[in-house]
Amino acid sequence: MSQSRPILYTYFRSSCSARVRIALSYKNIEYESRAVNLQKGEHTSDDYTELNPGKLLPYLVIDGNGLSQSIAILEYLEEVYPDKPLLPKDPGQRAQVRTIVNAISCDIQPLQNMRVLLALPEEQRAGYARKIISAGLAVVERMLEKTAGDFCVGNHVTMADCCLIPQLYNARRFDVDLSAMPHIRAIEERANALEAFRCAHWSRQPDCPVDLLSSANM
């Protein structure tokens, strides 16, 4: 395995990037962060496109591999860096984790990401994002009624938590009402007490604009 420090191409407000930041920090994998500004279109530059033809974030260079798609990255980290596992040993619980992961990464995030919102008239964007996130998190809350302990599945941090907490960044950004989601709010509170989640928060990224820090929910 290569001993060079991994490089994570990231953007402070990218919830997909935050999933990987959490996992890297939780597993105590030191990495170099390289900011790619989505608002300025840096993800469409020739240099970044050559690196990642999908023009998306995150992108992780690790162990001689260049990896895109956050869930594939999480799976790689779990297989190659098994200390502090993010998947339970029990097959049923592993499936529950992946079910919640997919509910967030397939059914919520892609429908409210920047590419989708920019296709809408500006006055419709916030309301649309709020509707999509609220409906999706309501489904997740119902799942958590059956699976949650201290965290999404049982009492240990899993990939599901790595996906849920960044989705809540977007929920709060678009003023989603979480009052009827007690499991989600309790898990968020426990996660935010852990340094791996705290250091991955968008407000603690080097590329976070200073003028946004007052709105940070930490």
TrEMBL record:
GO terms for cellular component: mitochondrion. GO terms for biological process: glutathione metabolic process; L-phenylalanine catabolic process. PROSITE patterns: GST_CTER, GST_NTER. InterPro entries: Glutathione-S-Trfase_C-like, Glutathione-S-Trfase_C_sf, Glutathione_S-Trfase, Glutathione_S-Trfase_N, GST_Zeta, GST_Zeta_C, GST_Zeta_N, Thioredoxin-like_sf. SUPFAM superfamilies: GST C-terminal domain-like, Thioredoxin-like. Residues 90-210 form the GST C-terminal domain. Residues 4-85 form the GST N-terminal domain. It holds the Pfam family GST_N. GO terms for molecular function: glutathione transferase activity; maleylacetoacetate isomerase activity. Signal peptide: none annotated. PANTHER family: MALEYLACETOACETATE ISOMERASE. Belongs to the GST superfamily. Zeta family. This is Maleylacetoacetate isomerase.
